[in-house]
Amino acid sequence: MVMISMFTHSTVSVTFGVLLLSYALPVAVSQALAFSSPSYTFSVASDVKLNTAVGVVSVNYPSATVWTIVYATNNFAINYLNGTLITTNYLQPCSLYNVIVRASNAQRGNPYTNVAVQTSCPNSAISIPAFDQPTGYSISVGNGCPINSYVGVVTAARATNYSLASPYFNINPFSGQITLTNAPPNSPTVVNVIAANSAGSRSVPVTLYTAGCTGVSTGISPTFSQNAYAFTATNCVSGSIIGRVTATSTSGAVTYSLGGSPYFTINSSGVISVSGIPPISGTTQTVEVYATNTSNGKSSMVPVMITIPVLCNGSQSGPDIG
Fold it and tell me: Which has more pLDDT, 3 or 51?
């Protein structure tokens, strides 16, 4: 008699003397990997900050399961160990973002699910940023003024982003910390710092006194084509190309160097490659790339975020997820 089962089967072989018998054992469908919900909807504030946890896309068997995003804009990332969805960019108010997530388990399957992220609409409860010194800041720059040195900080309540325009100074868009990027003039320099959120923006003058600077020279450091770069490795064997950064200079040639990781190198054209040490799978690393003007020795730095997929040929095994 032949019986038909609705279960998934696995084959087991049993030997009796010289006779080999094979039969199928049913595996309960309930053991398949599945999301806790057919789809997910998360709501966030319109002025949500970067690296904010939006929600968790959970499964019935989290042990030995890896989460990945298979479709999305550059606005989200997911923790591959626990399924937490995280913001990686500023989101527009009153907007709906769709993300497709896959959970992978070698023993239980690879299901997909859709995640909808809805941002709130600005209203009277959200106010534009307010600086703690609304009339302006005065900052003295000294200690020899080495390039990339910390100068000072501005703070605004409710700010999600800071910016300024200056050939001599830069500001961290998240913390409001100001750094020196080029040798400044020996006279006070006034820059306008803008603090913004989804409701609007506000500016404040910042006067930077640079009389204490020494070794001021002519010329400026190279300028990168982007404020930051992000690449995802497609191959992790030694010599594989990750991506390229570019910087230009008004005078003199530009050379590149890289710091912050033993897994990557950079050549004279700004091409980043895998070094002789294989990177670790399932990780995201940030390295610092420097562009130097050969005529005056001035340098600029740009952060480069490199994502190593869980399955990347030639990579080291990532952390134990069991």
Answer: 51
